[in-house]
Task: inverse folding
């Protein structure tokens, strides 16, 4: 995996573009600072989008049921492998590190076979 620092001039366009391709991902947000230690803010919620608003100088991580705001970000690093974004690290003006990890949701196997067996009367007593 490769860590890359994003230049501030590219943040707005980068988040606009990456939000379009992250549909269906889940996100975990970890906050790390000397004052509070390491804390999980959100654990694997569906990700709705990532936004940088240059007017208010805020990074917004939109997840189902949670709108996580990072005020006055000073640096943003992205961690990616050859084909996908794995995580982002946003360092705010106070030096607090906020790590957003991404993953694909767990896909459960289709259980249609059970529904079909019950519908056909399998398991019922013979007439």
Result:
């Amino acid at each position: 995996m490769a860590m890359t620092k994003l230049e501030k001039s590219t943040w707005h366009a980068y988040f606009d573009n990456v939000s379009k391709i992250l549909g269906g991902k889940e996100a975990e947000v970890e906050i790390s600072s000397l004052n509070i230690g390491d804390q999980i803010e959100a654990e694997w919620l569906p990700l709705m989008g990532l936004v940088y608003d240059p007017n208010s100088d805020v990074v917004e991580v939109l997840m189902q049921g949670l709108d996580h705001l990072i005020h006055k970000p000073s640096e943003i690093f992205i961690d990616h492998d050859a084909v996908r974004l794995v995580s982002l690290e946003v360092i705010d003006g106070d030096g607090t590190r906020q790590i957003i990890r991404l993953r694909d949701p767990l896909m459960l196997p289709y259980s249609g076979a059970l529904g079909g067996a019950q519908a056909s009367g399998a398991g019922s007593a013979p007439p």
